[in-house]
User: Which sequence fits this backbone?
């Protein structure tokens, strides 16, 4: 019965003169999300609203699921358009609408009319009262509640008359692309995809970098990361994934530095490389899935040590989250099952039994001196291995 | 150079078998149960397949059943025999080093109230005939012993076991999972007192998704799937004719020059074993020489993680397996390796090389040379 959706958005509304930029981004992201759904759709902006109109047969649930992944949408309202053929006809249409949508009509309701077209013969108050009467006549089991109605029936008088009463909650946030772009350090774990998702929610476009270390990490580990990027891309639009071969750098650090500092020094080089690629691709920040104290390399001291190598801001949206809270989101965005596949990533392959938890920056820096001879060349070489995979959602 | 040494996982299909299958899929696609000419034409392929396997196994055509592969054959044999025989007895015997396609049905049957005895194996993976003898009881309905172990290549004394079982309890059915043995040895169920035998096509250069179960006439086995009553009601479902014919063709080709091919494979295996041993601190698992299968070499490389070695060899174009392919995606270490007493440290340092009739001298030399280069390098970088 539904062929159209009214898209409600929250925060965009308050962005003043930039509003049209936000709306354009939202329309673009809606179109991107609907590409995967069966059917043809027109997305239009009129009267400060966004509508999705189906141009062909479509699967209602599939469309709603797709729209639920578009940041910036606060609510999805399935809407019915009827022609304005006089008030009596409108009454019949409204009765039919309620009959179709609500099988159980033992509910309270309220009519909320709005006239965008002021030449309509009745004003809003009159429409509310008259239609309320028509509904009560048709369905005596219903009753009016103007304060907390179970059904709030919107009747909007425009070129046609729009009827809607259901609001399916959207994901909130801001349309991706309105907040610039950031580079996500994506591992095969549970945290990093969630971190990427959270920043994307604030309208930020996501690129990602993955460090792989063949033969220590397998092709399947890489495929797993591509699959995780896909989970993020389902919300954030296409994700450009940079795959960097990190093996030689890792082995060089292993040869030259104390093993208990291996992870910290390795992560410092990952940050350096990520920042380099981020700068070259016009990213405005880095994103990691770190959370204080989760592992040795995520203590405050360790974070300070890895943070020290970059000047670009590093966003850590999970910093205060417990593992269970992160898992909850991972399950919600469907990345959890993929994340727990048992392929090793390069952070764990050489991990020391007792890595330092309170690294001393001066000592770390002194040990990094051991790498002076060859590291620059190795970093340059690693950057040459950059393989870009455009991951579609 | 590409060297495929994972033939126990699966093999390349013979060109000739693939062509035959293509013809059956696209031209002679009839259903052998149809009465018209197309059906008769299709039935001819079926007849060819029955004849081929009856000849190879020296059994009656009526004793051959086609299934979807080794797993299904094992399931029909074990679950089907247990269902048919549960009034006679509720005891089964198998070994600790069977494939999951045997161990899992066994564990299912245990849940259904059957009792299962698991025979231990020695350091080389062989069962003890004395232990088997002691395990057989008047209520033992099935003994299931694999012909060749898929991870270490050990070949069990099947003929001796068969004779022993029949002398202790003539009613006990003897099942042999020969998925790794079929195509690598002449196996004659009659002489070996085998009542049920499982084999699979894709391990012998045939297609995937097709296997067979030999079932001695008179051995009572209930179906585990019900339907149109094909294959004498034991295995309903339209016959997978392209698969069946492809399997038969592959078997025909493999058994054509079997002795010659096996001798060649033994020589290559010997060469590979020698090459592996040249790398320091390596243990070769299983039986040496002709006592083991001609196509499997299992070796543990101390201080090297098998997955890393696997990927390092892969970088040089050499494909091997860590443990066995069926276990490679599970995190827990192999039950077979534990059963033969491989020390804990080596469990995750074990690689399986498996050869085929296509493996060349040059490929083995290339593999040995690369092992000697790679292993010491990997040993330099380990977890601390």
Assistant:
């Amino acid at each position: 019965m539904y062929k159209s959706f009214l898209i409600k958005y929250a925060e965009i509304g308050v962005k003043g003169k930039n509003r049209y930029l936000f709306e354009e981004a939202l329309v673009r992201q809606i179109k991107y999300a609907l590409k995967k759904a069966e059917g043809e759709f027109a997305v239009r902006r009129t009267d400060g609203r966004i509508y999705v109109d189906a141009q062909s047969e479509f699967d209602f649930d599939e469309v709603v699921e797709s729209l639920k992944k578009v940041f910036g949408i606060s609510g999805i309202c399935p809407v019915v358009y009827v022609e304005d053929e006089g008030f009596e006809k409108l009454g019949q249409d409204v009765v039919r609408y309620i009959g179709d949508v609500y099988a159980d009509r033992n509910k309270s309701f309220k009519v909320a009319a709005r006239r965008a077209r002021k030449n309509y013969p009745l004003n809003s108050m009159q429409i509310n009262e008259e239609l309320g009467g028509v509904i009560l006549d048709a369905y005596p089991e219903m009753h009016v509640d103007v304060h907390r109605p179970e059904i709030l029936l919107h009747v909007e008088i425009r070129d046609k008359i729009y009827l809607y009463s259901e609001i399916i909650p959207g994901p909130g946030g801001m349309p991706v692309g309105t907040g610039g772009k950031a580079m996500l350090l994506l591992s095969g774990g549970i945290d990093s995809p969630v971190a990427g998702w959270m920043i994307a929610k604030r309208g930020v476009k996501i690129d990602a970098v993955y460090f792989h270390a063949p033969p220590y990490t397998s092709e399947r580990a890489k495929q797993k990361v591509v699959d995780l990027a896909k989970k993020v891309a389902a919300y954030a639009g296409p994700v450009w994934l940079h795959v960097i071969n990190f093996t030689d750098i890792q082995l060089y650090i292993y040869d030259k530095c104390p093993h208990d500092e291996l992870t910290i020094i390795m992560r410092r080089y990952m940050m350096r490389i990520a920042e380099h690629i981020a700068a070259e691709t016009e990213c405005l920040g880095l994103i990691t899935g770190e959370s204080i104290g989760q592992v040795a390399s995520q203590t405050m001291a360790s974070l300070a040590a890895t943070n020290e190598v970059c000047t670009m801001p590093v966003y850590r949206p999970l910093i205060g989250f417990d593992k269970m809270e992160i898992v909850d989101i991972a399950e919600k965005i469907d990345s959890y099952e993929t994340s727990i596949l048992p392929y090793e990533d390069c952070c764990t392959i050489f991990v020391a039994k007792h890595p330092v938890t309170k690294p001393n920056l001066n000592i770390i820096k002194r040990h990094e001196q051991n790498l002076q001879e060859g590291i620059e060349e190795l970093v340059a070489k690693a950057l040459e291995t950059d393989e870009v995979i455009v991951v579609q959602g | 150079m590409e060297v495929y040494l994972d033939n126990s996982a699966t093999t390349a299909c013979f060109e000739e078998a693939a062509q035959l299958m293509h013809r059956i899929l696209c031209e002679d696609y009839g259903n052998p149960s149809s009465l018209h000419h197309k059906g008769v034409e299709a039935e001819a392929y079926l007849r060819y397949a029955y004849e081929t396997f009856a000849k190879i196994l020296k059994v009656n055509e009526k004793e051959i059943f086609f299934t979807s592969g080794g797993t299904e054959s094992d399931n029909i044999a074990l679950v089907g025999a247990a269902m048919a025989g549960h009034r006679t007895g509720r005891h089964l015997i198998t070994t600790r080093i069977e494939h999951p396609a045997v161990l899992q049905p066994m564990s299912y049957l245990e849940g259904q109230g059957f009792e299962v005895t698991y025979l231990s194996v020695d350091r080389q993976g062989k069962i003890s005939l004395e232990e088997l003898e002691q395990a057989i009881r008047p209520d033992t309905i099935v003994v299931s012993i694999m012909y060749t172990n898929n991870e270490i290549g050990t070949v069990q004394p099947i003929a001796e076991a068969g004779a022993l079982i029949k002398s202790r309890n003539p009613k006990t059915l003897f099942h042999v999972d020969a998925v790794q043995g079929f195509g690598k040895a002449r196996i004659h169920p009659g002489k070996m007192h085998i009542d049920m035998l499982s084999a699979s096509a894709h391990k012998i250069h045939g297609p995937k998704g097709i296997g067979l179960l030999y079932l001695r006439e008179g051995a009572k086995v209930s179906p585990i799937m019900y339907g149109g009553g094909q294959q004498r009601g034991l295995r309903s479902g339209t016959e997978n004719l392209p698969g069946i014919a492809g399997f038969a063709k592959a078997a025909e080709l493999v058994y054509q020059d079997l002795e010659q091919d096996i001798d060649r494979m033994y020589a290559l295996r010997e060469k590979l074993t020698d090459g592996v041993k040249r790398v320091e601190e390596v243990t070769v698992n299983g039986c040496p020489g002709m006592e083991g299968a001609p196509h499997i070499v299992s070796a543990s490389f101390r201080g090297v993680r098998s997955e890393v070695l696997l990927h390092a060899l892969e970088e040089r174009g050499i494909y091997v397996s860590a443990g066995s392919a069926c276990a490679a995606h599970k995190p827990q270490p192999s039950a077979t390796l534990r059963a033969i007493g491989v020390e804990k440290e080596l469990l995750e340092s074990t690689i399986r090389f498996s050869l085929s009739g296509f493996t060349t001298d040059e490929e083995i030399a290339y593999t040995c040379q690369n092992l000697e280069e790679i292993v010491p390098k990997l040993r330099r970088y380990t977890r601390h």
